[in-house]
């Protein structure tokens, strides 16, 4: 109950071990704190916290409008619900080097295992849309240096994301990847790779763990775990998948209520009351309560 049993330090250590395991690990995106429990229960390796989801959930487009406070608060609420390590999307780091340092410390305080910081100009765009622009190599590497210097837990993962592929091509992406790793990035997120061969080319260029973003309706095909594993990808994220699925289900049930005058036809698709209670670990709170109040009011069931 109440919830994670592992400390943020232990989760960060676990993330490092996952990335060193030689396996390709899967991090689905939690769209709220409780969905992180579901991800853990289903046996995934970790939880991703998407900037797009946090923005869209607030009704905002993913163009750098959310603040550090909003992101750190929500990411902390999600991270605390799970014993899995959580990786959060820190967009462009919420400013330039000094801000980067503060961002990393706030995310450490919030219990995250790591974050990724991208090399887009401010205001940023979704990585799978046209019209993105990136900062020069010096600005990009200073962001990563500042982030790496600011962390207090050496296991807090600083992942550099580069969006340069869409603007300047694959060779530029390889070069940028190397510069970001030289600046201190522990891992790399090459955004909007089009093919498996492109992932392989990034794999060739750097010797840190690399991430594949399997977001729907984007630039990359939805490669399987096996395919990504075969080109040396270490971590796969499904950033917006659960939000898209949940909102898709919500839209359908609203249509059903409108059409039928009742939600009855949609009930079989819903999480039952019992399952929802199981997910929030209701029985554990009951046990705790009966342990403290070890008497029963006549006539009330425990
Ligand atoms: C990974 C990402 O940065 C995110 O915020 O989840 C997005 C995902 C998306 O918009 O589909 C991105 O790829 O830019
Ligand atoms: Mg994002």
From TrEMBL:
A Pfam family per the record: PEP_mutase
A GO molecular-function annotation: methylisocitrate lyase activity
Enzyme class, broadest EC rank: lyase
Enzyme Commission identifier(s): 4.1.3.30
Keywords linked to the UniProt accession: Lyase, Magnesium, Metal-binding
Pathway: Organic acid metabolism; propanoate degradation
Catalytic activity, as annotated: (2S,3R)-3-hydroxybutane-1,2,3-tricarboxylate = pyruvate + succinate
Role: Catalyzes the thermodynamically favored C-C bond cleavage of (2R,3S)-2-methylisocitrate to yield pyruvate and succinate.
Family per record: Belongs to the isocitrate lyase/PEP mutase superfamily. Methylisocitrate lyase family.
Protein name: Methylisocitrate lyase
Species annotation: Arthrobacter horti
Upper lineage: Bacteria, Bacillati, Actinomycetota, Actinomycetes, Micrococcales
């Amino acid at each position: 109950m109440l919830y994670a049993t592992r400390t943020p330090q232990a989760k960060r250590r676990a993330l490092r071990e996952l990335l060193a395991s030689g396996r390709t690990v899967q991090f689905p995106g939690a769209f709220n704190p409780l969905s992180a429990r579901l991800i853990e229960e289903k046996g995934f390796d970790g939880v991703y916290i998407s900037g797009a989801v946090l923005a869209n959930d607030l009704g905002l487009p993913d163009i750098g409008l959310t603040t550090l406070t909003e992101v750190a608060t929500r990411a902390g609420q999600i991270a605390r619900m799970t014993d899995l390590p959580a990786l959060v999307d820190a967009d462009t780091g919420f400013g330039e080097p000094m801000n980067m340092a503060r961002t990393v410390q706030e995310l450490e305080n919030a219990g995250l295992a790591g974050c990724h910081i991208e090399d887009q100009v401010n205001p940023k765009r979704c990585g799978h849309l046209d019209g993105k622009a990136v900062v020069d190599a010096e600005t990009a590497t200073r962001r990563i240096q500042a982030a790496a210097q600011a962390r207090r837990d050496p296991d807090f993962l600083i992942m550099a994301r580069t969006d340069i592929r869409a603007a300047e091509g694959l060779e530029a992406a390889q070069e940028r990847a190397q510069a970001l790793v030289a600046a201190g990035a522990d891992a790399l997120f090459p955004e909007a790779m089009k093919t498996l061969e492109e992932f392989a080319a990034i794999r060739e260029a750097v010797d840190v763990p690399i991430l594949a973003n399997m977001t729907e309706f984007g630039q990359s095909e939805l490669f399987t775990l096996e395919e990504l594993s075969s080109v040396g990808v270490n971590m796969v994220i499904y950033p917006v998948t659960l939000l898209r699925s949940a909102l898709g289900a919500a839209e359908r049930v609203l249509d059903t209520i409108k059409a039928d005058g009742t939600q009855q036809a949609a009930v079989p698709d819903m999480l039952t009351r019992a399952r929802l209670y199981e997910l929030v670990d209701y029985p554990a709170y009951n046990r705790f309560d009966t342990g403290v109040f070890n008497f029963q009011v006549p006539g009330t069931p425990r």
